[in-house]
Structures are given as C-alpha cells and as structure tokens.
C-alpha cells in the first residue's frame, strides 16, 4: 500500500526550491529539526519564529525610523522567517530568503499545500496581539500599530486561501504604504 501511494502521489509545484512535499517517516522529520531539540514540529517552530520576528522587527524599526530601512525590514525579515520555517537548514536559509525576496518580480502564480498555509496562518495570527503591544511600547503611535497588525492579518488570510503570489503582492504594497506612514509619524 505504501509503494502504491508513492507511485500515484504527485506533489504540486511549490514556491520554495528546497521544499518538497514527500511522504517521509517520523524519524527523518525529527532529524531535519535536530538543531532545535526543544521544537517538536514545524507548527511549534512557526509559533516561536512569529514571536521572535515580531520582537526583532519592532526593535530595529524603533531605533532606525527611516523609510528604506523600515521597508526592508518589513519585507525581507518576514520572509526570512518563512524560509527558516520551511527549510530547517542554515545552508539553504540565505539562498531561499533571497530567492523569495526577489521572486516578486516573476509573474508566476503558485500555491501552497493546505496544511502548510493553515499552519502559517495560525502562526501569524498568534503574533498579532504580541506585535501590537511591542510596537505600542516602542513607538506610542496606535495608528501605526493597527495598520501594521492589519498588514499581517491580510497576509495570513490570503495565505489561507492558497494564493501565495496574491498575498505577496498585498504584503509588498502594504509594506510600502506603512513605511511611508512610519516616515511621516517619526
């Protein structure tokens, strides 16, 4: 039965080059996450990364309130966490994050697997309140905090509907608008 399933199953094309949807054993999945022994699955890893990147993003933007730096941090660092979540290997991490950052200019429509998009949506939704509190403590501008939280909300909702290119497009332009708002407020 296992051989027959491997023969008929054809995974859909994914956006990340180092990610493959294969039927692997539990031992192989545990070895791939051996560098983080306290994380048992990718969903818990995504929760951890969402909190860590929220703190890192708000910390750097609070000290460097410039337009280009805030725009860079709101796009590149966010997809840096996606690469870390999808490809738990430090060698392929930088290549994947750089590939995701430049892939906006390629007009290809790709989709994510349903389980993966649901995990990403849940991990992003869990960091909304934490991100809002951190940005409010560092900046004191509630309008910017609400807009930036809306940026993550729209991105996670579009990911849930399996439209990665559309969510990237919305995220790109929302980052641009929010960076302009940040440059005016600070």
TrEMBL record:
Transmembrane spans: 43-64, 76-98, 118-138, 168-185
Record keywords: Membrane, Transmembrane, Transmembrane helix
Domain of life: Eukaryota
Protein name: Uncharacterized protein
Organism, as annotated: Acanthosepion pharaonis
